[in-house]
Each structure stands twice: as C-alpha cells, then as structure tokens.
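pinned: reference chain
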Amino acid sequence: MITELVTGAVAAAAATGITYNVCLKKNKVKEVNVTKEKKTEENQVKENEPEEVAPGYTEEQIKELEKNAYYDMVTGLMNMTKFSMECDRFINTMPGAFFGIIVFEVENLDRIRLLYGLAECDKVRKYIADSLNEILNYAYIYGRVHEDLFAVFACYDEEDELPNIVSLLTENIHSYAKNVNLTLHFGIYNMDDNIIPTSQAIYMAELAKRTVAKNNSGENYAFFTEALEERLVEDNQMSEEMNNALDRKQFVMYMQPMVNLRTHEIIGAEALVRWEHPTKGVLSPFRFLPLFEANNFIIKMDHYIWREAFKTIRHWIDNKIDPIPISINISPIHFEHPRFIETLCNYAEQFRIPKNMIELEIPERIFADATENIDRILKELHEEGFILCIDNFGSYHSPINALKEAPVSVIKLDRKFLNNNLSTTEGLTLVRYLYAMAKELGMQIVAEGVENIEQANDLNELGCDYAQGFFFAKPMTLRDFDAFHKEIMKNKYMPAVVYPSFDDVNKDLLP
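pinned: its structure tokens
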C-alpha cells in the first residue's frame, strides 16, 4: 500500500506542473524556488471543491506524500532521493560549471548515543539541520542523505571555497551543548572533469571522509583522490565477492600466540582473520574490515571466526592436546544484536567447550561509554563464564574506574599507549603503577605489538608478565600454530644443563 502511495505521489508531482527556478549570483546557487505552472481554464477546479491532481488523490494528500517521499522526518531536510534529484537537475542547467559534493558526519555520535540515548541523537541531527538552514540559507543544496551522513552540493569558482565551507560548518556546528562538542569529519569530491550521478559522488566523498582519522595533516576533511578511486573499485569488488567468499571458506582464522615473558610458555592465542583470495593472495584485515564494518557484513564474518575458535578448542581436546584459551574480537555492533549472548552460548554448547576457554576482547570505548544495557550484557557474559578483556586499553579514555567496576579479568594495552609512555620517565611510572594496580585487582595485563627484544626487556623490567607481537610470532594458520606450540613445549621441557664443580667430577670421565 505504501509503495502504491509513493508511486502515485511521484506521478502526481508531474501532474501538478511543479518546476524549479534557480537564481544565480556569481555562478553560485543563490536560491531554489518551487513554483507551479498556471492552470488552464480546462483544469480549473470548482470553487470550494478539493482539487484532484491525480486519480484518487487530493492536492493535500499529494503534498503529504511528497513530504514523506522526499524529506527526512527528523530534520525536515531533503533525503537522498530528493537531494540527488535536485543536484542532477541543477548540473544539467549549468554545463561547464565547477561542482563539488561535501559530506560530513558526527564522529562521536555513537558516544553521545551510549551516554545519553537515542533521543539525544535525534536532537543532534535536528541541531545540525537548523544550523545548515541558518548558515547556508538556501545558497546551497543540502540534505541528510543517510542515517548520520549530511551532504552539501556547491557550485564554486575557486577550489579553496570548498575547504572554506568546511571551516564555516565546523565553526558553527562544533559547540552543541555546554559539556558536549561535536567532532565533525568531512569528505570532499570535486566533479570538475567527471560529472557522475550524485549518488556516486556522495559515496566517493564519503570514502574520502573515512580517511580523515588516519591522516596526519590535522585537518578534519579530505579530498577524494585517484588512490581512493582505486580503493573504491576494490571495495565494490570485495562487496560483490564477500558472501561467496564466506560460503567457500576463503576467510581463514589465523592465530597469534600470547606468551609468558618469563617462561616463554604460550598461555593463549588471539583469533584473527585473513582473506585467502583466489587471485590476490592473502589479504590483511586492514584491506577489508573497514568495508565490512561499514556494510555490517562484519556480523556474519565475526560469527564465522567465533565458531572456528570454538571448533579449534574442540580439536585440541579430541586430539589429546592441552587446550589454551582463545580470545575473539567483539565489535561494538554486536552489543546491539538481540542474540549476541545466545550465539556465543550456542557455540559453547555445540562444541562442548568450557566457556572460560573463550576470552572476549571488547574495545575500550565500550567500557568507557557503557550504558545500563551494556553493563547488563557485560554482567551476563561474565555470569555465563566467559572471560572479559578490555582491548586496546589506553586508546580511548583509559577508564580506570572500569578496572574495579566492570567484570574484567584481562587488560590488553594499546601499542601506541605503550610506545608513548615507554619513552618518558613519567610514562614509565604510569605503566609501572598500572601493572601493580592490575595485579592487586587480580587481573592479567597483556602488552600488544611487541616487535623487538628491547621492548620485551623493558616490559619485563616494568613487571609485565604477558605479551603478544611479531617479536614472538606472527599470526599463523591452525596447522602452523599447532606445530609452533609443539616445538615451544618440547623446548620448555628439555632438562636444564648442569655444570658440576670440579670437586664432584669423576676425573676418569674427563677427556
């Protein structure tokens, strides 16, 4: 029924004779006015009778349907469909002009949601819409084109006008509330020499936006480049291949050992993923995880790797190999999934695995911004018997309170956190006391990213018992891991070499 109404609305829009007149000032969009053609006498409706502009619909019904079909209900801004229509229409009226698409997103909106709830997020979106209406004042075409992605279409003379728009928006939108600032990241796509559909331009600008957090320029925006265009082609190809790759078991669980720094014993392993691509070879997760997190395929892939981890422990038990705990990575999106805990428990039951053999590596920001619902989930996971670990500790807010309030047994220190603190006296003191405090609370601390013997020695002197990194071993397949573990265990149980004193030596045995 809804589809029929919307279809009728689109058809009826043409029947009403709606046209768009664009006023220009110095080659920039000054104003977009919606007008209607004058009705002929034949089409005049009788006075005091509702005007039927399409079969079965009155003018008021058409307006309401157009509003629902073309405008965002929360912000009142154009949605993706309307925004694309207006941009494409304007481009056709200005051949040879310079156009650009700017997209932006509130990067800390997830944190606001976790702290204040979904209703506050809608207030943020409405605040942004009000700001756009006030700042741009119909000088540009703009809208809310995806869930949390806003877009601005601009016609410009000089390229530096686009970063100027970014600065203007940042300056006016940044301060949301007394204790809350909005972190905005922008992506820009120039349409100078390559006029493409607006929807594709938005995606390219959004791809540029994703690189902002990784650049070292200090800017909160990035332009789409040829290198990103190559990445776009690759992303599209991976999106087409990912489901088939999962079915064909091209995603393979790799394992990286965690070791005791003093005994060199392997005390656990982290389950990681590699894509064994038939033509591109083994792909690092950095090549595909950002895409999978963006399109939610990460849920399917994580479930597959989790299952492989449970199955591996069953393999060890069945083959009389002493099992060690395996840690699996938990993306924040799983906390929104209603069957998150049930899925983990089902795997434990299916493979008859003690739940304390599975360690759940949960990002630090989940603990830092925990809501009542997240606290409830963490408590349930702990009560089920799973081991909880704060992953990348020191990369977000270093929530010291989480160490005593959350049901955590393991802390994994972020590599950058360690590198930044091991180089200064104050930093060394901080790390030393962190280790001491964790031990007092009965927690294990694992240092990630150990790459050389100097780092291993420094950590040993600071009191760190456990570490993980390329210095000890790179991630490897299960078969290689079993062989590596067997060799380590064999070396561990070799008898120590004893050098007796000459008083105890039988001289007849000397050469």
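why pinned: The mean pLDDT is 80. Residues 1-39+53-70 form one domain.
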